[in-house]
Structure formats: structure tokens, C-alpha cells
Specification:
Its main location: membrane. By secondary structure, the protein is mainly alpha-helical. The chain contains five helices and no strands. The chain has one domain. The termini are close together.
């Protein structure tokens, strides 16, 4: 069981580390995708510019991914990743706002994939430490 948990953390964490690092280096279209959500949040919270917010979220995913993969503070790492995944999912896969049926279906699949990943992170956060 110990080896399976180690492998699960490595596989899950490395994915966030790689994708987070890519978004941190080159936010690209992610900034435009995040804009509607960030604009809505700015009605109640003072937030920095869109690109900085995207990069900050990417930094959380990079650090959280590396630490989860390494088994360093795995509960905290999983919770950090879960917190960063929620705005990523809402901004990046807002299928409810898409009119084209094919594009809507694709984004709905990606949205549900992310909710499954969120569930896995919550399992990791609740899992008792490996001894």
C-alpha cells in the first residue's frame, strides 16, 4: 500500500507541476479564458491584473505539484492544488456559456475531468500519512 500511495502522489503531483510550470512561463490564452471570472470576482474583491492572477495560480500548482510528488506536506499540497483547481475549472471549462454543441460537450467533459481530479485531491488530503 505504501508504494501505491507513493506512486499516486508522484503521478498526480507531477502532472500539476508540469502543467503549472507551463502556465507560469507562458500564460498565453489562459489569461483571456480567466478574464470573465476575474472580472466577476473584482466586483467584490480587489484583484491584481489578469496575467498576474493566472501566473499566481500556476505558481500554486507548480509548488503544490512538486511537493505532493515529493511527499512533502502531502495534505497541504493536495489542498493547495484543490484550491487552485476550482478557479481553473470555472474559468477554463465554462461549458454553460458556450453555444456551439460540439465545443460545449468538449468543455463539459473537461469540466467533469477536473471535478474528478478535485475528488482525487480531496482523497489525498484526507488520506492518513504513510508510515
Amino acid at each position: 500500500m505504501k508504494h501505491a500511495l507513493w506512486a499516486a502522489r508522484l503521478l498526480t503531483g507531477s502532472t500539476y507541476a508540469i502543467l503549472g510550470w507551463d502556465a507560469l512561463r507562458t500564460p498565453g490564452g489562459r489569461t483571456q479564458m480567466a478574464a470573465p471570472l476575474l472580472d466577476a470576482l473584482r466586483r467584490i474583491l480587489p484583484l491584481p491584473e489578469d496575467e498576474l492572477m493566472v501566473r499566481a495560480n500556476a505558481a500554486v500548482q507548480t509548488v503544490g505539484g512538486v511537493t505532493l510528488a515529493a511527499g512533502v506536506y502531502p495534505r497541504l499540497s493536495a489542498l493547495m492544488l484543490a484550491a487552485s483547481l476550482m478557479p481553473t475549472t470555472a474559468a477554463g471549462h465554462a461549458f454553460w456559456s458556450i453555444n456551439d454543441p460540439a465545443a460545449r460537450k468538449l468543455q463539459r467533459v473537461q469540466f467533469h475531468k477536473n471535478t474528478a481530479m478535485l475528488g482525487g485531491l480531496l482523497f489525498a488530503a484526507l488520506e492518513s500519512p504513510v508510515k
